[in-house]
Amino acid sequence: MPIDCLQLVKMNSDIEAAKEHFGKILKEQLERVETMKASAGWTDYAKLDKLIIGIVGGDGIGPFICKHAESILRELLKDEIASGKVEIRTIDGLTIENRAKQLKAIPDDVLTELKKCHVILKGPTTTPKKGDGWPNIESANVAMRRELDLFANVRPVRIPEQSIDWTFYRENTEGAYVLGSRGVDVNEDISIDFCVATAQGTERIIRLAFEHARKTGVNKVTVVTKANVIKKTDGRFLSTAERVAKDYPEVKWDDWFIDIMTAKLIDPYRRAEFKVMVLPNLYGDIITDEAAQIQGGVGTAGSANIGSRYAMFEAIHGSAPRMVDEGRAQYADPSSIIKAAAMLLNHVGFVDKAKRLEMALDLCAQFEKKVKITGRSDGATGEEYGKYVLRTVERKDLEQAWNAAKGA
Length: 408
Ligand code: IPM
Ligand code: MG
Prior knowledge:
By secondary structure, this protein is of the alpha/beta class.
């Protein structure tokens, strides 16, 4: 059917409105690139007079599990807290109720408090989606990653008895996420989202993955994209990897497409060969849930969000409001957020304490399993489990027990 004059006018005005929107977001992205170029380099935690750790409970099961991780941190850092080298600070207000009331992904006063910390331990926060009863505001995670420029989402998954030792480096500030709340409904019939890859953003995450592979002696990196189809953004990711890899001649690297990678993670003959994986934001989101499930569930994996100025550590799972509604929040598994606390300790330089906490988590969840958590009243409470982990960290024979269990 030929387009009539009125339709043409409407079409042109829809296109103009979309172009205007596109212009605005392009300007912002170009400004973001300039900020990345001007980045002041990494915080040196060893040089701080006092390290400030912010604890953000979040909502849903968040505050329930977060308090157990906080107790463990307080115990492991009690000397440093007593001497004033470390301060643990509670930051309230990142609940879905408060965010909905203020119609903000992160209320301004909360963001100001977050920026006064060096590192943050964060419980899960509910991410609204259209039609769920909450205003459809942006995810607090996504906003925090952007506001604090936490560009690397580092997610380790280990299953010692299957020789699985994966570390995912998920790009955290670009890709399909950075403008995830800024797409356009061009008209009643067409919606368009945007995916972004910048030279700076891509290079810094890929470099961090290669640095990790080099530093740990793993010397193996797998780059995961869908560059055969998503030719610009994923294409850039892959070509940046090709270039960066030249600076790491001792690190072997290969590239895989996300679809087959998803399959290979459940291939028992192949999967232990993967070590360090680096990938764009959305693929990283999806595949790290799969990997965590292979390890024993999303409740078992921790997640570090690292930037050069700030870092935030969190559970990889959501806020499970259903558990709260059904009165089961006290049975939620705190392993993931405790694992995040171990990653925090490691990141700020308490490497031995972090290692002990990780060994304890392995022993409790994968080997000794003396306290079982099921998420329901037939299992232990989060508090009982947290205490079990702490008792295990404090065991004199922890390292021997862990080595024996691993070798068995
Ligand atoms: C994660 C979560 C978040 C994400 C959600 C809550 C926005 O799934 O940290 O993996 O998609 O990044
Ligand atoms: Mg996710």
